[in-house]
């Protein structure tokens, strides 16, 4: 523990982040988000991402509901949902989710229901992946903060 | 994903187009055929109808009228012989009746002649009467009287011999007694009369006496003739029932039939017949008449009896046949005349034997033999002798002409119509040919349009694709850069790793730039590139560029020289990023192909014709102005205006290198895309061949031209000119110190030949003495020479072991003559021998001249720190980085002059001088690096179109600001912010005073916010060096050194005090954006949609009318900072797509409500759509700027700053 753990966790976090970047799950926007986090808003990233998850789950539910309707025709509404999803995804830097959204929107613009369904599957998958990974990240972050709390202030 | 999508779109498009095309083809093909066919058929039908109708009408009407005419004629023709016949018959009847009456009278007179004498007398009287009648009628053939007793009296006229005879029977044979018997046998008188007469006749002897036809006198002897030989005497047999009878008779002596009538003469008591009177008329005259008629009218006429015996014809054919029993009447059918015979047969065939029963027959088209005839028959009803008249007229006679005409007309009509048809067909053919040609052209046009549409669509797809690709490509790059930044910010890197990572980061930035290049090109090609118009310092940009490239140049052992003439305008208007891009491409291109030698960028100004006068301003402003003014006055306002508008400059540039050169045949093609002069260059030098293409399109876009020019030596000479406008106030030349009076001598000890040459030329031009040295030995030699001479006053005997070349020595001699010269020695660090430790010795050597001259050191970027330290230690504070250009030189000169002046004032203050120098040194370095930041900023920003104009000017402004206050920039900036803050707040006082209801509400905010602000501000200003470094890593990942810290810190809190209304429905974005802005010191008020945004704004507008003072009194002490928080917003960030009311609508409403008040709250659009059309729409509804999601930190800051500063 004592200080070393924090460094290790920091490295872990970086590794995880790097992995997510390499996989294209996240992009530079997330870094920007992290940069915004400081003493004045210590939990900012977590907070935003939580809002994002909350919002996204609602949107996903709506989308699924829309697509499951028997006589489905409200592509416009779906487009609005997708735009929102895209906006929020791109602002937290969830790149892959965003890309799937783009494809989804393209499918919905072409009134391609099968494509929409496929895209929805993909979107849910990507979203779950992102959620898991971010949870993992925040978990590490929390641990790191705990570990960092052990450090003595003079170290800084 | 995007790629597939794009392909699918394309496929869809093609499919549609193919269908469309097929439809078009079939449409045009069948249509033209149909038109031709139908029009021809129509024409044919029309003409045919016309022909037939014309023919029909002409023919039918003519025929009809002619027919009626012909009918009349035939009727007339026939009527005449019939009337003649009638006449004959009538006259015969008359005569007969007359004879009868006379006979009756005579018999009454001599009733019952008793004696022979009386009998004879009776006969005499009868003879005289009869003669009288006979003579009166020349046409009569004979008149006979047959008495009861058998006595016969007759007059006969032979028309052929024209003789007249009197025939009588022998008187003696007849006794009067016979009369007695008559009386006895009254009832059977007939029988007895007959028998007697027969007997008597047979036995009687008739006498024939020729008579004088006129007088009736007996002219010859009577000669006996057999009874009934010459003429037929009508007897009782002819009048069986005692009434008149008619019949046609023939006689031996005439060849025409005779018409004979018989009437009985009754005795006065009307009981018995006493005699029979007979009259015979020849029908000869009827025939004559017919002949006459026929002669005039042609044709044939004949009369037959009811039985069909011919009575009269218009021909000469005989009417009688000679049989053994004497002549007999002939049937019409047997007539010798062919026509009559055939006509009669035709009639018989057509109407049967009893055709005469029907009254009239009119046949128009009877074909007899070869010809056609009209046949008409008339029925003439006479008692006991019905007659039939037939007229046969050849059709030819009447209708011949008509038929001929009709035929001719028909032929003419048909031929005419055929002609018309033919011509019409040709016309139609020609016409339709034209039409079909037009159709074809139209079809072609349509297909062309289609092709164009497709091309447009595909280019649309392309641009879309590129837009997508740009994101796809940039994102991984951004990820790489971001990851590298993470790495760099990681403390646990060794120095080497750090440098490697930094190198990687540079490379990735370069790669990103290449991508941007490609995208730029496509942008330019698709015409979407819009050049912005901002003022920028061209010289500074180019200097920065040269600075940048010099690093590379030195590696290549190539010298970069910037040679801008003095008449170049300092500030020009244009797209700085693009201009820099042009030169960056050109220089990097030259650099690529130049292994040794130099690259010279020359620039001079060439005034365009229209602004010739204006162009002179910067050169000799002060002198020419009065003269110019008068001239202007003379020329009038027109030219004045023109001058003001047309300050366009033609700026000419040359990029001259000593590389491998370009083959003259390739001079044009190198500017094409993906084209390189030599294919092998890609192998050896790399590159895509895009650079020059971009350069040319950009230059052309700026109204200039670029070409490869001929050059004497090896290498390439690129010449280009740009048309740039200079702002009217920007033409003011910065005031230069007049160096020529300062008695300065510059010793240029530079390795690069060209740079040295150009610099010394320029220095000469501005009136300075220069001495050049290219290597260490030369430098030492010159130094010795110079200062030996100086010191020769004291040390005359020193002999120079180095001999100077002739021109140099004369120069030195000239310098010797100067009074109190100040020496500036510019030493290239490359002159020192850095490989060994000799440089220390060399420095020591130079130290000996330290007091006599000012040293300025030209460092290269890789100059080891040890040397710098050493130099600094030795007090050489004037250090500049390697490429030496005018601006640097001027700075050096100014520094030296200032120092000298200072020295002159306070000779003792050595320490002060060093600090000054330190300042200067720092200033120069900051200046150089500042540019780097600015340029990187620009390159980033330039992707986003017009909004970078804002940031461009922003950085420029900042730079200038920095120039004015070197050194304590960080503190200064913070102070500025605070000052600004308080100023704004104090302004707010005025408004907050009047709103009692809102202050309370906001006072919480005030209290919460204010301390935070204060602490943050103080924190950042106090612990600036620490926090700024931290911020640097966060906010500005490109920064690499301490130098940036002040700037970063400045930027960090740059939005201090700005109140921003954030309208954003997406909670995530809302949170992110507000945190971002709060980090920057801004106060953020977030609302969920456009409606709320409008409401929030309306509150303020309404609130301004309210007055509130009481609360203000309460807090009087702290007003300045506390009552700041009445929310009048400095700026609105507006998401475009929101529920309830979207950003566009909200903006429109806000702008409308502002219309009267003169307020203008800047509105910045936030949108996820990064297409230019969205931008246009945003600006159209009244937004001031445009940011895309995800929000770019730097861009947002610069945009907000530019907007808020403008309003403040």
Largest sheet of chain A: none
Strand adjacency order, main sheet of chain B: 5-4-3-2-1-8-7-6
Measured distance between first and last alpha carbons of chain B: 47 Å
Q: What is the end-to-end distance of chain A?
A: 18 Å
CATH topology group of chain A: Four Helix Bundle (Hemerythrin (Met), subunit A)
The Rg value of chain A, from CA coordinates, equals 18 Å
Mean pLDDT of chain A: 81
Q: What percent of residues of chain B are in strands?
A: 15-25%
Gross morphology of chain A: elongated
Instruction: Give the number of helices of chain B.
Output: 34
Query: What structural class is derived from the secondary structure elements of chain B?
Result: alpha/beta
Helical percent range of chain B? Answer: 40-55%
Global Rg of chain B: 73 Å
* Uncertain segments of chain B: 1-24, 175-202, 609-644, 730-735, 792-802, 908-1051, 1104-1126
What multimeric state do the chains show?
heterodimer
**Describe the biggest sheet of chain B?**
8 strands, antiparallel
Organism (chain B): Carya illinoinensis (Pecan)
Keywords (chain B): Kinase, Membrane, Phosphoprotein, Receptor, Transferase, Transmembrane, Transmembrane helix, Two-component regulatory system
Protein name (chain B): histidine kinase
GO molecular function, one term (chain B): phosphorelay sensor kinase activity
């Amino acid at each position: 523990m004592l200080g070393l753990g924090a460094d290790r966790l920091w490295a872990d976090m970086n590794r995880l982040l790097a992995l997510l970047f390499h996989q294209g799950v996240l992009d530079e926007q997330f870094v920007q988000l992290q940069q915004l986090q400081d003493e004045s808003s210590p939990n900012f990233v977590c907070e935003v991402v939580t809002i994002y998850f909350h919002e996204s789950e609602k949107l996903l539910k709506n989308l699924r509901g829309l697509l499951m309707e028997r006589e489905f025709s409200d592509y416009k509404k779906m487009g609005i949902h997708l735009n929102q999803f895209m906006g929020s995804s791109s602002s937290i830097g969830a790149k892959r989710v965003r890309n799937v959204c783009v494809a989804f929107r393209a499918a919905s613009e072409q009134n391609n229901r099968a494509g929409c369904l496929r895209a929805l599957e993909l979107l849910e998958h990507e979203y779950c992946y992102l959620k898991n990974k971010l949870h993992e990240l925040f978990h590490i972050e929390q641990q790191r903060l705990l570990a960092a709390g052990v450090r003595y202030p003079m170290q800084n | 994903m995007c790629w597939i999508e794009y392909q699918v779109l394309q496929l869809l498009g093609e499919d549609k187009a193919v269908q469309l095309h097929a439809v078009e083809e079939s449409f045009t093909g069948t249509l033209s055929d149909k038109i031709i066919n139908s029009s021809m058929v129509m024409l044919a039908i029309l003409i045919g109808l016309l022909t037939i109708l014309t023919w029909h009408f002409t023919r039918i009407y003519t025929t009809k009228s002619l027919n009626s005419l012909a009918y009349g004629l035939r009727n007339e023709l026939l009527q005449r012989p019939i009337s003649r016949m009638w006449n004959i018959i009538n006259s015969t009847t008359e005569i007969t009746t007359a004879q009868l009456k006379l006979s009756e009278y005579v018999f009454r007179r001599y009733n019952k002649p008793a004696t022979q004498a009386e009998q004879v007398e009776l006969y005499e009287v009868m003879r005289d009467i009869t003669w009288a009648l006979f003579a009166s009628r020349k046409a009569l053939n004979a008149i006979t009287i047959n008495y009861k007793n058998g006595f016969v009296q007759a007059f006969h006229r032979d028309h052929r011999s024209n003789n007249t005879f009197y025939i009588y029977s022998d008187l003696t044979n007849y006794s009067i007694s016979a009369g007695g018997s008559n009386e006895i046998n009254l009832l059977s008188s007939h029988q007895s009369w007959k028998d007697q007469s027969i007997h008597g006749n047979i036995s009687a002897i008739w006498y024939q006496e020729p008579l004088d036809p006129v007088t009736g006198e007996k002219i010859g002897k009577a000669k006996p003739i057999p009874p009934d030989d010459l003429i037929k005497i009508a007897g009782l047999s002819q009048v069986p029932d005692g009434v008149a009878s008619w019949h046609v008779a023939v006689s031996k002596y005439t060849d025409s039939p005779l018409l004979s009538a018989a009437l009985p003469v009754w005795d006065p008591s009307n009981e018995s017949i006493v005699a029979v009177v007979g009259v015979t008329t020849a029908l000869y005259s009827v025939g004559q008449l017919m002949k006459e008629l026929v002669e005039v009218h042609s044709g044939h006429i004949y009369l037959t009896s009811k039985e069909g015996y011919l009575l009269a014809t218009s021909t000469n054919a005989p009417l009688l046949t000679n049989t053994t029993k004497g002549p007999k009447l002939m049937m019409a059918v047997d007539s010798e005349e062919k026509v009559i015979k055939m006509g009669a047969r035709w009639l018989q065939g057509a109407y049967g034997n009893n055709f005469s029963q029907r009254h009239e027959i009119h046949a128009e088209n009877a074909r007899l033999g070869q010809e056609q005839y009209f046949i008409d028959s008339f029925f003439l009803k006479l008692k006991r002798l019905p007659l039939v008249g037939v007229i046969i007229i050849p059709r030819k006679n009447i209708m011949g002409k008509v038929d001929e005409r009709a035929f001719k007309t028909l032929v003419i009509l048909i031929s005419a119509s055929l002609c018309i048809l033919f011509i019409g067909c040709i016309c139609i053919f020609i016409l339709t040919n034209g039409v079909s040609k037009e159709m074809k052209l139209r079809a072609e046009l349509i297909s062309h349009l289609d092709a164009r549409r497709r091309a447009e669509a595909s280019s649309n797809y392309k641009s879309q694709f590129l837009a997508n690709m740009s994101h796809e490509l940039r994102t991984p790059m951004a990820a790489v850069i971001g990851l590298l930044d993470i790495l760099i910010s990681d403390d646990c890197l060794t120095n080497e790793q750090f440098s490697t990572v930094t190198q990687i980061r540079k490379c990735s930035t370069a790669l990103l730039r290449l991508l941007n290049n490609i995208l730029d090109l496509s942008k330019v090609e698709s015409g979407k590139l819009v050049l912005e118009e901002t003022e920028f310092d061209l010289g500074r940009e180019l200097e920065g560029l040269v600075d940048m490239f010099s690093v590379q140049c030195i590696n290549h052992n190539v010298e970069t020289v910037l040679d801008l003439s003095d008449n170049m305008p300092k500030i020009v208007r244009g797209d700085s990023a693009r201009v820099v891009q042009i030169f960056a491409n050109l220089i990097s291109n030259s650099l690529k192909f130049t292994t040794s030698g130099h690259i010279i960028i020359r620039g001079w100004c060439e005034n365009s014709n229209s602004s010739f006068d204006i162009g002179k301003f910067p050169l000799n402003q002060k002198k020419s102005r009065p003269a110019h003014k008068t001239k202007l006055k003379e020329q009038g306002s027109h030219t004045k205006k023109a001058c003001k508008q047309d300050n366009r400059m033609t700026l000419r540039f040359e990029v001259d290198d000593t590389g491998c050169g370009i083959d003259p045949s390739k001079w044009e093609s190198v500017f094409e895309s993906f084209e390189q002069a030599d294919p092998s260059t890609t192998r050896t030098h790399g590159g895509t061949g895009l650079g020059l293409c971009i350069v040319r399109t950009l230059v052309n876009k700026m109204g200039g031209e670029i070409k490869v020019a001929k050059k004497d030596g090896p290498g390439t000479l690129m010449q280009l000119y740009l048309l740039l406008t200079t702002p009217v106030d920007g033409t003011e030349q910065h005031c230069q110190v007049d160096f020529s009076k300062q008695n300065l001598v510059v010793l240029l000890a530079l390795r690069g030949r060209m740079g040295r040459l150009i610099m010394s030329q320029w220095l000469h031009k501005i009136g300075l003495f220069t001495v050049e040295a290219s290597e260490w030995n030369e430098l030492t030699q010159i130094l010795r020479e110079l200062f030996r001479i100086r010191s020769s006053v004291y040390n005359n005997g020193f002999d120079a072991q180095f001999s100077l070349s002739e021109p140099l020595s004369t120069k030195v001699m000239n310098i010797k003559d100067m009074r109190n010269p100040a020496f500036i020695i510019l030493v290239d660090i490359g002159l020192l021998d850095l490989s060994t430790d000799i440089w220390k010795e060399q420095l020591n050597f130079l130290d000996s001249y330290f007091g006599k001259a000012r040293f300025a050191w030209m460092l290269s970027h890789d100059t080891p720190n040890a040397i710098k330290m050493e130099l600094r230690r030795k007090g050489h504070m004037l250090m500049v980085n390697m490429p030496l250009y005018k601006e640097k030189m001027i700075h050096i000169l100014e520094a030296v002059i200032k120092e000298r002046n200072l020295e002159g004032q306070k000779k003792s203050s050595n320490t002060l001088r060093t600090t000054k120098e330190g300042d200067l040194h720092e200033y120069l370095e900051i200046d150089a690096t500042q540019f780097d930041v600015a340029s990187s900023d620009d390159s980033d920003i330039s992707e986003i179109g017009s909004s970078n104009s804002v940031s461009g000017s922003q950085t420029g402004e900042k730079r200038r600001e920095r120039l004015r206050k070197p050194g304590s920039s960080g503190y200064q900036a913070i102070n500025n912010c605070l000052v600004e803050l308080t100023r704004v707040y104090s302004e707010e006082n005025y408004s907050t005073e009047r709103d009692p209801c809102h202050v309370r509400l906001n006072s919480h905010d005030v209290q919460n916010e204010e301390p935070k602000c204060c602490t943050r501000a103080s924190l950042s200003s106090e612990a600036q060096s620490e926090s700024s470094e931290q911020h640097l890593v966060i906010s500005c990942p490109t920064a690499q050194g301490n130098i940036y810290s002040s700037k970063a810190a400045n930027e960090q809190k740059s939005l201090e005090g700005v109140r921003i209304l954030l309208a954003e429905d997406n909670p995530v974005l809302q949170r992110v954006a507000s945190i971002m802005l709060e980090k920057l010191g801004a106060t953020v008020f977030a609302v969920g949609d456009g409606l709320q945004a409008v409401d929030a704004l309306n509150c303020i507008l309404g609130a301004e009318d309210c007055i509130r003072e009481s609360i203000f009194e309460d807090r009087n002490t702290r007003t300045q900072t506390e009552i700041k928080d009445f929310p009048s917003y400095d700026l609105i960030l507006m998401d475009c797509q929101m529920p309830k009311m979207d950003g566009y609508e909200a903006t429109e409403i806000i702008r409308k409500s502002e219309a009267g008040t003169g307020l203008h709250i800047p509105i910045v659009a936030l949108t996820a759509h990064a297409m230019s059309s969205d931008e246009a729409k945003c600006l159209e509804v009244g937004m001031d700027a445009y940011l895309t999601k995800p929000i770019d930190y730097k861009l947002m800051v610069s945009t907000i700053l530019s907007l808020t500063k403008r309003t403040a």
